[in-house]
Amino acid sequence: MAATINERPCSSAASSLGDGKPEFIQKIENQIARINAIYLLQKEDGVITISEDRAIRVLLKRDSGQFWPSIVEFLTSVPLSVYYDEDTLSLLVGMVNGTVYEYTIAADFNSIQQNRHWEAHTMGVTGVVSSNSARMIFSCSKDKTIVWHCADTSVKIGSYLVDSLCTTIKFDPESKICFVGDYNGNIYVLRIVGNSGQQISKLSAHTAAITSLAWDSKRGQLYSGGADSLVIAWDIAGQKGNCYELNGHDSKISALVLAENPARLFSVDESGHLVCWDLKAKRIMAPGWHDHDRCELCDVPFFWNVKLCWDRKTVGVRRHHCRTCGHSVCGNCCSHFTTFPAMGFEKKTRICNTCHSKMQQYPDQFDLTPLAVQCELNKGIATMCLHEDTGKLAAVSFDRSIMLWDVSKLL
Ligand SMILES: [Zn+2]
Ligand SMILES: [Zn+2]
What we know:
Elements: E1 23-28, E2 35-40, E3 46-51, E4 55-61, E5 67-74, E6 79-85, E7 90-95, E8 99-105, E9 112-119, E10 125-131, E11 136-141, E12 145-150, E13 156-161, E14 166-172, E15 177-182, E16 186-193, E17 196-204, E18 210-216, E19 221-226, E20 231-235, E21 243-246, E22 253-259, E23 264-269, E24 273-278, H1 306-312, E25 320-321, E26 328-329, E27 336-340, E28 345-351, H2 353-361, E29 372-376, E30 381-387, E31 392-397, E32 402-406
Antiparallel strand pairs: 1-32, 2-3, 3-4, 4-5, 6-7, 7-8, 8-9, 10-11, 11-12, 12-13, 14-15, 15-16, 16-17, 18-19, 19-20, 20-21, 22-23, 23-24, 24-29, 25-26, 27-28, 30-31, 31-32
Bound molecules: zinc ion (ZN) (2 copies).
Keywords: Metal-binding, Repeat, WD repeat, Zinc, Zinc-finger
InterPro entries: WD40/YVTN_repeat-like_dom_sf, WD40_repeat_CS, WD40_repeat_dom_sf, WD40_rpt, WDFY1/WDFY2, Znf_FYVE, Znf_FYVE-rel, Znf_FYVE_PHD
GO molecular function: zinc ion binding
């Protein structure tokens, strides 16, 4: 069967990215508490973490080859989100009580100083981001607001209320647009003009909470990961409303990280499945699902079509949808499963008998070469961070360890 060449985990099939795989470097074990966010340092072999035990830690690699803390700073409440600017050494930390703290980490990573703080929200700060060019600091929260403060005076400039708990935020300084994910699976696209936030659009395609966003400013593409296991690429710059589904996960997406230069997106989920997506690959939008009350191939009525079932003295069947043509079909007419990377299906998906025969008949028209590399990290991942230049990826597992991976062969 031509349609079954890509068995998961796909360790042997060469993809459009070649046959490079992530290589394990080192594990930093036995962290005291659950890590809520991590930043992989670029100028030093080390990481910044914020943890459930109310601590900011800087862990540096020592001569022994082991990572040890050079800074442990305890806070008054639990830190949820972090933003670090390695040029200005400024560290922003969003707290569970709604406060945002700003610290400066010394250039030698041996000391930390608290500069200021402001009560930005009434509930947990789930995302914080600073823009040097716009001189603004943005935060979003479980209190359903996005708030922006002046980076120089820390005076509040404006705020915007959405319908649900905010989960994550990204900012594009050039267009002054904020992308904010929420708990209901929506993404708000807000243009910030002075103290007002103008909603340009609301992107709704996920069926569960947005867990992570990545913004590719070069190509004008936004990537969203959801608790519905789906990654979606939104072509914001194209302005035609195109969006592409990236189906490679079976568990909640826990983090997305982007490498802009070779155009790769890494997505990881709560079961530890890591996917590196080739963003240069030409992709096709998945079709909308047809709404029919009987099978479009064999005409058998679906179970809710009571009249037709009665007229024909037949039992109605369950409806399925072919993922590559969108037709409403019965189980008998869509018994085939295949990958279809061009449409984002890196894992096998259901297709109808017509599409299956077309794929069999014209294999040259249906290139099934994977457009992503998949890998098992063997531990559920809570969050991760990528350093594009060195090709290092830090992944934090639920068992409180940090795994360092070399992904340079994928970049
Ligand atoms: Zn049928
Ligand atoms: Zn079909």
